[in-house]
User: What shape does this take?
Amino acid sequence: MIEIKAEMDATVWQILIEVGQSVSTDDEVIILESMKMEIPVVVPSDGVVKSIEVSEAEAVKGGQTLVILDSN
Assistant: This one.
């Protein structure tokens, strides 16, 4: 299991994945917005999306879990 976390305080601007979807290393899964900048969140390795822990327009804190993957 891999937890993908926010690197900084931000707002979830867009969720690009769905539960059950297969993702590959460096795929963008979420776009965060902070200080009018878009920050893509990418997966560190191949896997399947087990859960999405946030929703669009939600404010998140640095270190907060965004997505949980089952690794292949």
About this structure: Residues 2-71 form a domain with the OB fold (Dihydrolipoamide Acetyltransferase, E2P) fold (CATH 2.40.50.100). The chain is about 0% helix and 55% strand. The chain has a mean pLDDT of 96. The first strand starts at residue 2 and ends at 5.
